[in-house]
Amino acid sequence: MQKLMLKLGYKYYVVQGGDWGSDIARTIGLMYPDNVKAVHQNMLKMPKLSFSDGEPAYTQFEQRSLDRFFKWFLETNSAYAFIQATKPLTLGFGMHDSPIAMLAWMVDKLFLWSDSYPRTSTELITWTLLHYFPGPTTGFMMYFENNLPATMVEGSWANEYLGVPSGFSAFPKELAIVPRSWAERIANVVFWKEHEVGGHFAMYEKPEELVGDLVEFYKSVWKG
To answer: The pTM is what?
Structure first.
């Protein structure tokens, strides 16, 4: 992306990401701080922190977010990532042979990771076919080719400090969003907004809210 932006004539630019894009956006900010003016994320996972003087008191929103990530997601809803990361071809052949299996695999995530978003049958089928037509293995391979555990290892890039001005939009049904006090340990947080409704697919579920955050944040850090 850095090469592309420079080739297009943009010496400075901003990045935004959710899900895998959140890791990518953060990495770009770490690698090219002289070019990236701001980084915005609507998902943030990091290793669980240790507190020598006791864990701080959290707001209701923060505690729900921590429980959702460390208890609900990591303990009971992350097995899909491990099978995709270790057996992408095996799983891919099975999904390709059975479109119904692929549909069930996708719908499970779309419902559990959303915040009561009223998806239609057409939407569910369309999202599934976007993965099915290229070959299900295509989407699974990125889990195999990227080291998932490394994104949660103490001392890795996961908790390397990001000095670029950083903004976060926190939605209650996101898979991973930590308290602002945690984020401030690894990023120069200058914008933080918590929303009452919204899930993992924020740009699809709540586009006006997320875009509004982006406009407000980027205007505040990039003047001129």
So the answer is: 0.92
